[in-house]
Write a structure and sequence with these properties.
- The chain is an alpha/beta fold.
- The strands form 2 sheets. The protein has a 6-stranded mixed beta sheet with strand order 8-7-6-11-10-9, with helices on one face.
- α6 links the parallel β6 and β7.
- It contains 7 helices and 11 strands.
- The two termini are about 40 Å apart.
- It has 2 domains: about 120 residues, Glutaredoxin (3-Layer(aba) Sandwich); about 110 residues, 3-Layer(bba) Sandwich (FAD/NAD(P)-binding domain).
- About 30% of the residues lie in helices and about 25% in strands.
């Protein structure tokens, strides 16, 4: 854990966080892919904002009473505080770096925000192959590349798994005689890719893609340059645009994901 992030419990919350002028708190869980995707973003932002805003983390399962009292029901969830009061948006799920920065900036004076933004140094990352899209196709490509000892980075604006992760059940995927929940199928793929050695940039803002130079720019500060670029951005269902379709999507209305 970064030096400027402090792990706390419910008692520390009352004793240390609430008296703070400005603070941010991350409720996390173990075996939580969105928490894994958030961790590096939270740590890097603590290095930028940590002198002005106190950064805390708390294990949600070990502090359920506090979490429930604050209306926190899932992980990760980030809360922002000013003079002991929760302020701004509550962020949860596939949290992007830009979303956190917007809330942190709101805690500071504009002049200080500008100073901090100017202090952010660009990061250049190099690898053999960048894969755009972390759905089944992108994950499969990553697994094959990693097994061939090719350094691969998967980039996606969402969490790994793609559209299949939102599907109630998948009944026609090879190797699974019984229907599988879509989120579990995508979880298996993600875990297999991680075990193979694939690196991830998940829930990021993709600012620009240079197809000629094979370079991907993300989150306003990192460029990933590769020898090869694989585009596996997938597709999305074509809606019928009928009354109730959006409201009942996933609640009786579903789309094929395979």
């Amino acid at each position: 854990m970064a030096e400027k992030i402090k792990e706390i419990n419910a008692e520390d919350y009352r004793r240390e966080l609430l008296p703070s002028e400005r603070a941010v708190l991350d409720f996390y869980s173990t075996e939580c892919p969105p928490c894994e995707a958030l961790a590096s973003k939270y740590e890097s932002l603590s290095e930028i904002y940590g002198d002005d805003i106190r950064f805390f983390k708390i294990f949600r399962q070990g502090n359920r009473e506090l979490a429930e009292s604050l209306g926190v029901t899932g992980s990760p969830t980030i809360l922002f505080y000013k003079k002991g009061e929760i302020t701004g948006k509550v962020l949860t799920g596939a949290i992007k770096r830009s979303e956190i920065m917007a809330e942190l900036d709101a805690l500071l004076l504009p002049g200080r925000v500008e100073e901090l933004k100017n202090s952010i140094k660009p990061v250049a990352t190099y690898c053999d192959t960048v894969i755009l899209g972390a759905g089944p196709a992108g994950l499969t490509a990553g697994i094959y590349l990693a097994q061939a000892d090719v350094d691969a980075i998967l980039v996606d604006r969402a969490l790994p798994g793609g559209y299949v992760s939102t599907t109630h059940q998948v009944s026609n995927y090879p190797g699974f005689p019984e229907p599988q929940p879509g989120y579990m199928l995508s979880h298996y793929m993600h875990e297999q890719a991680k075990k193979a050695g694939v690196k991830f940039r998940s829930a990021v803002d993709v600012d620009r893609v240079d197809l000629v130079k094979k370079e991907v720019f993300i989150d306003g500060y990192e460029s990933i340059k590769a020898k090869k670029l694989i585009i596996a951005t997938g597709s999305s269902p074509k809606p019928l645009n009928i009354p109730g379709e959006r409201e009942y999507s996933g609640k009786g209305i579903s789309y094929c994901a395979t």
